[in-house]
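Archive maintenance. Older records in this collection stored only the sequence; we are now back-filling the structure field for every entry so that each record is complete. The fields below show one back-filled record exactly as it appears after the update. Entries are processed alphabetically, and Monosaccharide ABC transporter ATP-binding protein, CUT2 family is next in the queue.

ARCHIVE ENTRY
Title: Monosaccharide ABC transporter ATP-binding protein, CUT2 family
Organism field: Anoxynatronum buryatiense
Length field: 484
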Amino acid sequence: MPMMKEEILRVENVTSRIDGITYLDNINFHVFKGEIMGLIPLNNHGKKQLIELIAQNKSIKFGRIYFNETLVNYYEHSNMTNNKVYVIDKETKLIESLKVTDNINVLNNQFNEHIIHEKKLQEKTDQLLKEMGVKIRANEYISALSMFEKTIIELIKALITGAQLIILNELASFLSIEELGVFQELMLPYARKGTAFIYIANHHEEAFKICDRVCLLENGSVIKVIDQKDFSVETIQPYIIAFDRHSSTHESKSFQGIFECHHFKTEHLNDISFSVRRGECVTLLDVNNKGIQDIAEILQGSFQPISGELLLDGQRIDPISVGNLLENKVVFIPENPVKNMLFYHMSYLENVTFLMDYKLKTYVIPKRVLKSIKEEYHLLMGNDIDVKDIRTLDAKSLYQLAYYRVEIFNPKVVFIMQPFADADMYLRGSIVKLINRLKNKGSAVIILAVNIADTLTVSDRLLMMENGVFLKNYDKSELSHVRL
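Back-filled structure field:
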């Protein structure tokens, strides 16, 4: 007889309401010991609340939750206890000012020694890192580690603290393709030993590579569970939005102009050069997630390249500063622009016209210009344009606000850092349309990415970078063959 699988988590008919909003609606699913359960949120409604509820037994309206085959939470009583669950996501829980060994061993609820033997702990940690094949020293400070290294330390900490279930929240939004592959290899032996994982991903191709089963989550409910034997595009197709590739029409227009990067060299860029024409979108895919970080910091004025130059229509942009880039109509959209671009003490109209002073070279925007913008964009923005408190808007409207601000500026070049990071499927569809609008209006678009999911839907070319050099240039005809 086949051995019965042991259940680590069962969420049974759970409904969760907070301040009158239903975040989880009669949700049902379970996870076995040693299983990697995929979770694909078609929208992000309820995702945060589900993660919190699995980790801690908070109050629920209906249903029951079992952990390690024990009833730990039900609608009549929630004791707020923590389950043996560890969540790994972009927001690290490590203490930056402490060493690796201190984070792993001392800041650990399993650690009960009254006298701390630093040398003994360091040797223990070094041995564990060596067993995993990880080249991180136990006496290094967390602040000196890369995001990838911090993620590995979080995995080790989760295992040492006795976590029976580890939730991995959208690793591809902050790890490169290379890093993601290494991390997946590191977690597999522990899954085989019985540790369970919930692997939250925004793209089915990523989840299908590593997971045993996949749940589709929409509006706080599991709408479909797909077994590994049924992993296929045909199975998931009815539940996802298909984004048409290359839906921009820039080829039918005669946009002139070209943006060039010549012989850029930094700590992580090794003499790279590339060019982009107006109306074209090029994705720079960084396998190591280091080179594009340097580009982003240069565009934000953090430092200058060791050597190299930027040219627009043959004219050098010198110096490379935020103000000078804006004067030349070169704009940078950071990762998560809703958090990093918008001013929440300003109205919608004040936000959307924020760059107009550079365009008009005046500190006061004339009322006739504001009136013209309202009339032109009212069909796109609807009543949002009259909103005084933008905190009342949903994520889609806030993303539109950030991109419309750039569009109104009429830039010649737009750099976009990780445009699809942390976005659910419906929001990604909206971002695709916003990027295509920039292309159709003649902007040269350069996407800085560590993961190619959805960037191919807007890209005309893909430049793959590793260790600061370009390995391959995929043109438009080859993009359909590029895989995640």
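Update note: Residues 110-116, 246-254 have pLDDT under 50 and may be disordered. Residues 177-192 form the longest helix (16 residues).
Entry marked complete.
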